[in-house]
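Dear U.,

For the methods section draft, I wanted the exact inputs and outputs in one place so we can describe them consistently. I've listed the two proteins in the order they'll appear in the manuscript figures. Please don't edit the token lines directly; just add comments below if something needs changing.

First protein:
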Amino acid sequence: MKIHDLHQLPKFRDGLSYLYVEHCKIDQESQSIAIHDQSGMVPVPCANLALVLIGPGVSVTHAAITALADNGCLAAWCGEGGVRYYASGMGETRSSANLLHQARKWADEKSHMDVIRRMYQMRFSGRLEESLTLRQIRGKEGLRVREAYARASETYGVPWDGRNYNRSSWEEADTVNKALSVANSCLYGICHAAIVTAGFSPALGFIHTGNMLSFVYDVADLYKTEITIPLAFEEVAKSEANLERRIRRSCRDRFVSNRLLERIIPDIQSVLMLPKRGEGKNKEETEEEPPPAGWLWEPNGEFVEGGRLHSTNEEGETTANDGADT
């Protein structure tokens, strides 16, 4: 039976992170999906998945994509090992309220800067002084990240010469840079799934800009020094055999142990200063109730019903008539 009430869907935080597949066929199986390859058929309970990463050599049916969408699982098409992102489907939310809130914060210069400061503040244990300029904060952030790389290098005994790789020449990168790219791609995927699931825009970044995934990079940067940097160095220290596959598996486990799926959406709400429904001291601080689907925007901030003829009579009063026949 098709789900009609999206509140029946599992919360994003309760999902099983992500599943990466390649060189197989994905088809619908009952109300979920199944993966077919040379070893046989494996049913996948997509209602408990947040994200399916579809790699090279995958054939997916229309019915399978429908099943993923009905269960609120994001489908994303990527390169081998998940190291490149190409396209994605639609998340489970149908409301634009969160996107409109994000857009207002992004468009207002003061609010934009406030969000940037909150994003950087989440990365530091101590409070950032209000007098610090954006360039000074970036300097502190650069130092923090360099120290994280140096600490991971020393802890796991893996030489580190800096973050240096070329996407068009993947094989030329050293082992640890490849490991970091694979781990970060997994992180980008799960952050992207969370952003779309909650109804935000991946493109409206605050720190990053000019890319359709700018906000994904903003959010993922909150967790890199905690998760992907130490994980990549740890896996390289163990062995270079099957490195990319091992990193994807380790990311999945680390996302669970660090409770990442429970944290992403609340962290986004926090940095965007998005209060829960009904909270706030005034109208501006309270999340606005989105208009019904199909309603029209008015310059005064109100909404009018769509599908009707809105006109002005001789007395200057606005009237609304059924516009189906006009």
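Second protein (the one for the lower panel):
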Amino acid sequence: MLKLSGFTDEISPNLDEQIAVSQQVGVTHFELRGVAGKNVLDFDDALRNEIKTKLAANGMGVVSIGSPIGKVKVTEPWPEHFERFKVAVDTAEFFAAPFIRVFSYYPPSDGDNILAHRDEVMRRFQAKLDYIKDRNVVLIHENEKHIFGEKGPQCLELMKKFESPKLRTAFDFANFIQAADHPEKNWPMLKPYTVHIHIKDALLKDGKVVPAGHGDGHIGEIVADAYKSGYRGFLSLEPHLAAGGQFSGFSGPKLFTVAADALKAVCKQYNVPVAGA
């Protein structure tokens, strides 16, 4: 049976509401990105402790730190960004989260080719992997438009460059579509590296984000193949149904519930057992 997680800051900035709506729709683990209007890397000790305590009291956990690491220009100063990465690792360990979501850098300016900066992208990933080699955490790379790994071949290149169990894939359907790429073509090549799946669908014609199964993501077929192939991880709701920005998205309680219901309907249609359905 697959499990449900979610970017619960899409529900509300309020922690109690995040927990309540998550429980209503069957989400058991946070993809922790924001609470009280603060990014996960900016939580103070009091907020971290509050989140950890309330999640434990409700039988919930954190599957991933939804960090913005790598979502900066590749020419921005590395030492400062690396310090932020260290915060992400510490935060993952504090919450016993197995994953840290990361990205693979924007070009220096709009219109530049990020592929020209491949060596620097790889150097930065090597430094991060060296840092966590003895830490109990895995980096999961999310494909995102305009970054190095916006399309399938570059995501595969990143995985093959390191062939490290410490660097795996978080497969995002809508992000591929918004980069004018095709999830169904990328899935076979990235399946061996995929340990986490983000549920966000979109339309190829204009990139509009829609509930699971209502777009061109082929979510049902891909999730069914993942399950048949032995995937038993999380389906992580990142709906972006009300708003989507560079560093966050929002749905609200009602649309987050719509997103969860749509995913459960897709899983039922394709005979994929999912918790909370």
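Candidate sentences for the figure legend, describing the second protein: Residues 252-269 form the longest helix (18 residues). The chain has one domain: 3-269.

Thanks,
Y.
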